[in-house]
Structures
1.
Amino acid sequence: ASGHVVVVGGGYGGATVAKYLRMWSEGGVQVTLIERNPTFISCPISNLVIGGQKTMEDITVSYEGLRSKWGVRVIQDDVVAVDAAKKTIALKGGSALSYDRLVLSPGVDFMWDEIPGLKGAEAQNKVLHAWKAGAQTVALRKQLESMKDGGVYAISIPKAPYRCPPGPYERACLVADYFKRSKPKSKVVILDANEDVMSKKGLFTKAWSDLYAGIIEYRNNSEVKDVDAGSNTAVLEFDKFKADVLNVIPPHRAGDIAAKSGIKLINNRWVDINWLSMESTSTPGIHVLGDAIFPAPTMPKSGHMANQHGKLAAAAILNLLSGQEPNPEPVVMNTCYSFVDSKNVIHVSSVHQYDAATKTVQPVKGAGGVSAARNELEGKVALGWAKNIWADMLA
Ligand code: FAD
């Protein structure tokens, strides 16, 4: 195959598709990756930085491997516009690039309109989400370190679908682990907009009662409708909740560039794709990966899944660039590990196979499952998973 593919976003989906396009075409396809950040910083394992068990250095990886080993042209810039008819993109830096096929893996952006009190920069710098790893990860850790013993940390979870279903519960555990060691009079309150724990429920609730009785309190049906950032107060439907450290994860949608490129979004939020090629159903030539897509049934928004999307799309794009049809029976899989303390981990896994009748990928019955119980062996496996997937994407 030959041609020029431009990839927007060097996260779990984008970095993977960039590398695999170069590797599988044996250098035949030119690949340009545009990423606004200078280095890759991983959301998976970032909850351990917030809990004080790992450092930012542990979750940061350079783009140098993509450049020097795989010949990907990596440009640090922001993509501000896409012209799907002319097959060009515009960069904030002023230049434009043309493509034969475009891949968007922009992750998520937040729906600030849903939480009016968080619309300004000042409020956003005080009431953090830390749902994109980077400066906010460091800032949330600092807030927790400065909190007095006996204080309350509250984390709010938006209604599903959101990025990383088990992630907020993992964060609650790791903050509680830190409190148990360093600020034993402090509390963690989970304000969940959903009716129930969204992932690994039995395993998380067991960790809360075994390890964090009297520390973690879980409240379901507690959607944050607004925030008073000045007083760190979350406004719920019938109630208000004031915390010492308030961590609000606002509802999110496909990264802004998806809407700006004029492709079809479902519910004004997620991109509708053709699962055989990950191509937008409205706009041929634009493939979309990762958290930005309208998820298939039971499919989580995860880094592991975005990495699988990257490989599915790379194979399909190489076929399309050679005038062939994509594989008619793609299969993808997922495993998400969650730390419940600094050593013990639980996992959930699933396999999803394309179904021609429903034109989507469906969960394969009997495949996957969850850990029997939290255990330290999976703690080692989880750190190995992270190192392996970063190498798979970037080295
Ligand atoms: P991202 O990885 O977010 O990549 C998007 C990239 O696009 C970003 O680097 C961004 O800077 C860039 N970008 C966006 N727009 C533009 C633009 N216009 N121009 C240039 N660049 C742009 N998943 C797991 O599998 N396992 C876990 O254990 C796990 N733990 C998590 C823990 C936390 C706390 C969080 C928040 C998430 C976790 N996840 C986990 C989920 C995982 O991080 C996401 O699902 C994954 O990052 C999605 O990949 P993506 O490529 O869609 O987006």
2.
Amino acid sequence: KDITPIKEKYQNDFLIGNAITSSDLEGARLELLKMHHNVVTAENAMKPSELQPTKGNFTFSGADLLVDKALAEGFDVFGHVLVWHQQSPDWMNTTTNAAGERVPLNREEALKNMQDHIKKVMEHFGDRVIGWDVVNEAMSNNPPNPTDWKASLRQSNWYHAIGPDYVEESYLAARKVLDDNGWDHIKLYYNDYNDDNQNKATAIYHMIKEINDRYAAENDGRLLIDGMGMQGHYNLSTNHENVRKSLERFITLGVEVSITELDIQAGGNHEQSERDRVAQALLYAQLFNLYKEHADSIARVTFWGLNDATSWRAATSPLLFDRNLQAKLAYEAVMDPV
Ligand code: XIL
């Protein structure tokens, strides 16, 4: 079978990325990764719990190895993630009360922890990365009123400790690092899933719009949030027309959009019927048609894993390459979506 690199097929459209662990940078996995992709995201290595497990003790060695090896192999690196409610250490935004219960930390301390983490991590990786997921998954999945984004925020530890402005404060801290160091080319992203859900997409839209409008008014029209990351963890009930509506809504914000964690669950038990294989390929084709149509606004399309065996959702065979690193029908669909 003729295997054309995905990154070649889309070279005039957007970068093609993948999520990596250290084993993806060796042997046959590295070969496949390199053939098809030009940018990588650390699947776990740059998360807060990895980088600052206890207060003030930064553990950069694992992430440094990964990043430097990826750069040496010719990949761009995208930074993931600075402020999140998962894979983040408890000390950042909670404390133990007299009764021994975990309660939110006071605003001042939590804000300082957040700002310190952002500054230290961003300055450490510097311009080895092309951008950052600054805030991840801040929005709830069922916004009570999508136009009221503050009331729609996830009730996370960050939210409870700091309040709804933790989102804006994160970007202000990250922007300051870029300004202080002259790293204008590094993009600051907001990243979230269920991006095809119109209520959630609407709430996110209003959040970015309000934060960016306020900043622009005081900063000569500059953006505070540069990009919207649609994670794209889809399944066979995802309707690509909903993905279209969200994508087109985000584009009207004037930010760049990237697809940051694409996979499509199809099947279970590490098995995929012919029917699921075909349905999965069809949805990949519909999505890449859509992405190509909006290539002017899309910077990057990143898959969340190289092959089905090592996916975080391995049981549902969500990727383009199978257990033996062989291209699936989904790969053919991405390469010939029309
Ligand atoms: C996932 C990783 O793939 C898993 O290995 C880990 O156990 C949990 O996190 N949204 C994100 C990613 O932003 O960081 C998550 O990655 C998947 C959902």
3.
Amino acid sequence: MFGLNRARKTAAVIAAGAAAAATALLGAPTAVAAPQPIVGGSTTTTTSYPFMMQITDASQNQFCGGTLVSSTKVVTAAHCMVGETTSSVRVVGGRTYLNGTNGTVSRVSKIWINPGYTDATNGDDVAVLTLSTAMSYTPASYVSSSQTSVYAAGTTARILGWGTTSENGSSSNQLRTATVPIVSDSSCASSYGSDFVQSDMVCAGYTSGGVDTCQGDSGGPLLIGGVLAGITSWGEGCAEAGYPGVYTRLTTFSSLVTAQVNS
Ligand code: ARG
């Protein structure tokens, strides 16, 4: 068993600045990991990635990411929505900074959680939110179920989020992005054993670690060729050598997502 960070809304706590809670939620046995940049990449803006949504609580404290796929539909992780209700969640578009007050804030009129979802390490980690207020930002397109070849090992993928910039660190006030290579399924299975469910997950990261998503990035996009192909889901620690980030394999759930987008 790994000390997997399948924690979810934990990030809300981190965003609120509770370092102690961060330790509690990670529950990782990983004693002392050197500070490792998650999105070891660089700061960016929602102007550059207009489909990048903050998923927040009612007080607009961000705890997960999401991807706008139509004017009123947002794809995120199922594990982000556990325990949430339509009144507890907001989606914020066009806001690059966590402490910003700009952009569009929408309430959520429906939360669809993949009915198969139990735990991120069992797969099925996808949810679709229906917005009460349409977003005027350009949505992302997402993979169709037949596009399984996008996950060829070594393919460059882009990750985005406001999550913690080190394993036990604090969230980034500004949106960040990085690129990571897709990892082969066999290699990911070697890292994670039976927790890696090949049909439902895809891994990305460098063998040596150093660049990864982390707590608070969950629900956000993994883009391949600019198209939504994965959802930030889980990993052992963050950016650790030998433990790539694990993302929802969106081709598997594309039809389910489309049914929600069209509903
Ligand atoms: N579960 C985390 C969240 O809720 C995301 C963890 C991603 N971890 C990783 N090593 N890529 O924000």
4.
Amino acid sequence: MTEGPGAAASEALATLHRVFGYEAFRGEQEEIIEHVVAGGDALVLMPTGGGKSLCYQIPALVRPGTGVVISPLIALMQDQVDALRALGVRAGFINSTQDFGERRMVEAEFLAGELDLLYLAPERLRVEATLDLLSRGKISVFAIDEAHCVSQWGHDFRPDYLALSLLGERWPDVPRIALTATATHATHQEITQRLDLPRARHFVASFDRPNIQYRIVPKADPRKQLLSFLREEHAGDAGIVYCLSRNSVERTAEFLSSNGVEAVPYHAGLDAGTRAAHQSRFLREDGLVVVATIAFGMGIDKPDVRFVAHLDLPKSIEGYYQETGRAGRDGVSSTAWMAYGLNDVIQQRKLIQSGEGDEAFRRRASAHLDAMLALCETAQCRRGQLLAYFGQDPSAAGCGNCDTCLTPPETWDGTVAAQKVLSTVVRLQRERGQKFGAVQIVDILLGKRTGKVIQFDHDQLSVFGIGQDLVEAEWRGVIRQLLAQGLLAVEGEYGTLVLTEASGSVLRREREVPLRMEPKKPAASRSGAGS
Ligand code: ADP
Ligand code: ZN
């Protein structure tokens, strides 16, 4: 009774239709599934939202026995299992959130061969009782989700993942599939080695979305900028506008609506009925704009989203990539547009500092933000920077479909300008024991006698008025870039500016500070601040 690969393929496709209700496989799904159904090990690298789950769920359904899924995301297990059950898949989980009775029931189902999928937290496999349980049932496939957790150098290292190499020893005949969304080449090799998957076939999906044009513009009047962008390039198109706060979501949706762009709000503060209604209008109608917090978009599969706009800075490149990735799933040209400015940097830095979480959490959040800022400030190809972040090789020549490729930004030597900003911060701190935010620093540099400048006698400082070679927007640009480069930092709830360890090298003239030219920079001030 031999079944060729053809039979397995058609059974996989039939399962895709019957159970999941999808038309066709995406990308490499079909190849991956065929390989695993045939008993092969696999390492799958696919961006978030790429469709990794089906790569093990379908083999689990097609092969006899239960598919065992190792996942560190305990909080999601209940939802995942509920979603599968709603499709008629017999799924269960075992983790620390369950009471004894619940666990017993799942164990019994597994032993009776009544489970298609069993989700397990990795720490369960350290317990001999769990291994013993697994030995007494029939396993169709092991799926190791978030496989990068095995990497000691990554952000998400889980010591329990190191024990997963024993799966191959104890169950040599059960295929194993490891999946991850973020992995550099090094992590990739670490996964192969530590999970003991030497014979695994590697499936590396490209993170590139060539039909998405990436653009990041300097923020001036974001809602108006958004409106012109929509009118000029996306009139009548469906799209998503992301804002940070509920309040800003509401106001932006109203602004667009009152300016002739059909838009509805979506955020967690709206009641469930309204949210569901707006979501289903977005899916059904042509050309509706949803203005949303990041609460919107998970699991939304609308192929003809023509643009994704960000009015506020995402916290990480992962988030940015995932959100912009909702544009253009049909392969048609689409735009990822973002307005970004000094206040975004200050706000995000403040959020990290005043937010919950320990020191390690803050460090990680800062590192994520730094990478995001580097993407915003780069003078190189944005796509190249994104791909490099995910460990993939960008084209050396640039992509030709992002703003920096289409209109390469000029850079200028901002060393002197940087020194002026930093000296002002130093003077205030050393001579007066004061700390101020960006607005006051810029007023001092420009020599403006505002009420607050007079109140604090800041017109008496030696740095008062030393920055008249640049205009206000340019100084804000300089400060923004210094913050992004870590040459200046934000402190406390008022967002006061303070020096960093790296600031000293600029003040001592030990390093140069190349800066991106702010658009429409007058020629006169260029030479004034330049070398
Ligand atoms: P990942 O785990 O890679 O982040 P998921 O497996 O959650 O991605 O899939 C992302 C979304 O794409 C889900 O809503 C899923 O149902 C959908 N999806 C996956 N594969 C297909 C397909 N072949 N056809 C249509 N939708 C798909
Ligand atoms: Zn490019």
